[in-house]
Every structure is written in C-alpha cells, then in structure tokens.
Design a protein that fits this description.
about 15% strand, 2 domains, 10 helices, about 350 residues, 4-stranded antiparallel beta sheet
Length: about 350
C-alpha cells in the first residue's frame, strides 16, 4: 500500500507542532496510565487526520509510538486474561475444598446397622487433658479405647472427671490438649456448625430425665425424629417400636407428670435410641430411682447393648456395677486408676 503523502510543508510543520505540544502535555500527566491513554488518543487522532487529509507520509516517530502503545495494550490484555483465569481456577478449587470440608464436618455419626466390624473403635481418646481457668485439672492425660458393642461403666468419686469426660464426648467442652475420635471423626477439628448434627447422632440419658413437660410420651420420643426430618409414616413406626421396647406403648398419651420416675427414665431412653445411635451415654441414669426401678433400667440398657449399641454408663451405684460384671473404668483425680474387663466397684467413697 502506498504511503499517504502530505500536501504541503505547512501541514507537516503543523503535525510536528502538534506532536511537540502532545509531549509537553504528557509530561504534566500524573500517572503512566493517563499518559498512555492520552498518547494513544492523540496518535490515533494524528493518524486519522493524516489519512483523511491525504497529507504526506506519517512521521516515523508517530508510527513508533503507535506500535509501542499497541504492543503494551496487547500485553495488558493478555495479563488481565491470565489473572482472570487464575482467579477463576482458585475460586473453583476453594469452592470444592469448602464443599468437601462441609460434607466431612456435617457427616452424621454412623448408625448401628452401618458399623460392621465388632472390634472397631467407637470412642478413642489420646492423651486428653482438660484444665479449667480456675486452675482445676479435670483430666490429666486420659487415653482409652471403647469399641463397638461394649458396655462400659465409668466410676469414681465426685470430682474425679466423670462429668468432664461425658461433656467432652458431647463437645460441650474442648480439651486443653490431646485428641478425641468418635467413629474415626476427630472432634477437636469439628467446626461449630457441625456440632448440633453430630450430637443428634449420639443417644444421651440424664439423671433428671430432661423431658418436655408440655408434651406427652409419644411426642417426647417423636421430637428426636422430627429434628432430623423423618417422614410421618416412618416416624410413627419408629416411635411405636421404641415405646414397645421400653414397655410404655400403652402410656403414649400420658404426660411426664403422670409417670413414675422409672417410667420417665424409660421415655428418656426411648427418645435417646429412636434415631438408632451407635453410642448411648447414660449419666447417672438411676440416680433418682429406687433399687427396683434402677435394676429394671439397667436391664433395659443391657438389652439395648445386646442389640449392638455401645453403652457408656456413669454411675455411683456400687451394687449394679458389681452385679453386672461389665468393663469398669475407674477415674480418680483426673487419672484412670483401673480399667478392668469384668470389673467391680473398686474405689472407696
């Protein structure tokens, strides 16, 4: 293509003057970005004027500046594209990792029917220490393993660390150091948002029953199923099955105040078991009951254990512990002082 010619020396001189004026203006710009944009606009304007007016050949200085600006623009666009690509990849990676972590954190505790290996650790503590701000050393380097299908008594004098032990398993407390695993899940790494769902996978029975006073027996047990979204037909089947097991099917419309202490504890056990947890924690389940009712409750817990549920009972009841001859872990001042497979009540009050 033939280069465009200037029609006169005056036009060329005018073009040179405009270029000098442009350079003077550019020297006053505050940022490189503003300079580049201003130069690009002026160079394009000069080139357009030259082409439109059929002036002489475009000065080499103008062409050089235009080429430089075009090259810089390409590099900037390529860099911006690369940045966008990296940002998109990072977002995708972060989102995937977050989703995996969420799934891991919110995975419910496995149910009895999902645990096949009878020797599989259900509760594992590794050198667990729990200190309180007031200086109390509740647990001092506890290490133990409780396997699927075991029935374990946890005994010891008041202040020995039994309640702290249970609260750690429920993640109501965090250990000062050490590791706690429930079904291979590390509780010390569990995020706060996953805790409520985790707790719904563990059955808990308390000394004072903790029933809903304004709801009848059926609704107290059904409450645990409603929380996890069990559909109506299946809910009714599960609740009725539990009430038959604990011997309260005929009293499902009764309210807690109409029941004896033993019956209220049976309701609490049915509620704890209706979601089929692999672990049942019983904290002084016979503490408010007479000897006859206490033994009936323990026989019920033994039946539950025979069906595959791991049962951990915190108790001060010497007669029951000695009579049942289960595994007995004894705590004293935050330390395990004995762990017997078929033990008895070995500490003095």
């Amino acid at each position: 293509m033939e280069p465009t010619r200037f029609s006169s020396d005056e036009a060329k001189r005018e073009l040179d003057a405009n270029l000098e004026a442009l350079l003077a203006e550019l020297a006053e710009e505050e940022s490189e970005k503003d300079i580049d944009e201003a130069m690009e606009r002026e160079m394009n304007s000069l080139a357009d004027d030259a082409n439109a007016g059929d002036f002489g050949e475009i000065p080499e200085e103008v062409l050089a500046v235009q080429e430089l600006l075009a090259e810089e623009k390409k590099e900037e666009e390529a860099a911006a594209l690369e940045d966008e690509k990296e940002a998109a990849e990072k977002y995708e990676t972060d989102a995937l990792e977050e989703a995996e972590e969420e799934a891991k954190d919110t995975q419910p505790i496995r149910r009895v029917e999902d645990v096949k290996d009878i020797a599989e650790p259900v509760i594992l503590m590794e050198d667990v220490v729990k200190d309180f701000p007031n200086g109390t050393h509740a647990l001092k380097g506890i290490s133990l393993t409780i396997r699927k299908g075991e029935f374990v008594f946890l005994v010891g004098p008041s202040g020995s660390g039994k309640s702290t032990f249970i609260r750690l398993l429920l993640k109501e407390l965090e250990p000062t150091s050490g590791k706690i695993y429930i079904n291979t899940k590390d509780l010390t790494r569990m995020k706060r948002r996953a805790v409520p769902k985790y707790r719904r996978g563990i059955g808990v029975v308390f000394q004072n029953f903790r029933l809903l006073r304004d709801r009848n027996v059926y609704e107290n047990v059904a409450f645990a199923q409603r929380i996890i979204g069990v559909p109506g037909i299946k809910l009714r089947k599960n609740v009725n099955e539990m009430l038959r097991m604990v011997g309260l099917y005929e009293k499902q419309k009764s309210f807690p105040k109409e029941l004896s202490g033993g019956e209220q504890q049976r309701v609490a056990i049915a509620r704890a078991l209706v979601n089929k947890p692999v672990i049942l924690l019983a904290d002084e389940p016979t503490g408010n009951l007479d000897p006859k009712m206490s033994w009936e409750i323990m026989q019920l817990l033994e039946e539950i254990n025979r069906n595959g549920t791991t049962v951990v009972v915190v108790t001060h009841n010497r007669d029951i512990v000695n009579r049942m001859r289960k595994r007995v872990i004894t705590l004293h001042k935050g330390v395990i002082v004995s762990d017997e497979k078929k033990g008895g009540y070995s500490y003095e009050r």
